[in-house]
Here is the input.
Amino acid sequence: MITSPLCSVEESIDTLLNDFLEQMTQQVEFNAGYSENLAFDYSRLWHFLRYNINNAGDPFIYDKFVKSHAKEFEQKSLQWFAQLYELQNHWGYVTTGGSEGNIYGLFLGRERYPDSVFYASKDSHYSIVKAARLLRIPYTPIDSQLNGEIDYEQLERELSAHRHQSAILNLNLGTTMKGAIDRIERVVDILKQVDITQFHLHCDAALGGMLLPFIDGAPKISFQDYPIGSIAVSGHKFIGSPIHFGIVLTRREYVQKIGKRIEYLGTDDTTITGSRCGLNALFLWYAIATRGQKFAREVATCLENAQYLRDRLQQIGYNPLLNDFSITVAFKKPPAKVCDKWQLAIEGNLAHVVVMQHISTQKINELIDDLLQAQA
Here is the structure.
């Protein structure tokens, strides 16, 4: 008899699954360190799990032979984001997440300007440097300010030193550890001052792309007002989903240098992954359709709770940092048992909590109680 390598004779599939379900339930209870909204409900879509929904190739070209796709839902979602960021004649697709969106944005920049130098702050997400390595783009790291925002003075010096080369720049609309925002308007002004006219601005807006548009007075994300080349947003962060996905958005004319016709599919190859999970597009559309009018309220609640956490941490001597327009609260690293229980993200002497929709004031009070007990 051939037994499954995934379970021993003593274990049944049901036992393994039940144990895993209990494990997941416990882990979710105290997930505070990572920017994942766990307050979601897609139960209405469960019956679609019986189908292989493949959004192969370009989302705006219906495949001749792959009929079981959800591209109409993908197009509706992309249109919503294009309106949010004031982008006409848009193009984009639903990605596997922010990292793929970042790789695609830099890929676009390199195809537009093959001789470019790439600039990004040291507080950028790890996928940014990885993308530069994959694409073999010369990378010039830029220091960050104490709050995590890019050092504009050093950026100007480096751009000036390479003024005769094109530039690809990554701007963080919410850094990973501190939630800092690189100001698009300041970078555009610097490019004008050093007289670099050939450049590609990519915005890593994994979390901030779903926060800034709903906050009064926040820096504007506008393809109309600024020469943004591309933007990447994560779907499983603020929006929330059991499946990791995101979107990348760009100006349609930039994609013309990338696409190639794939005859046996009857579509163009304009994405990185080729075959793409159509469920991602369906889940994203459903979230926007059912919660789109509530996003502003959700953002406001997260901001309020982040400020509450900051104030509580300040009271007990944890020196918190909360950037403007952010829901990421960084503070001095607590004892290991607290970090482990609450799954806090750690970098050096810093820890952080990302105050997503499932982080209530009650949950914050529980965390503060644990910190106080650890100090005793």
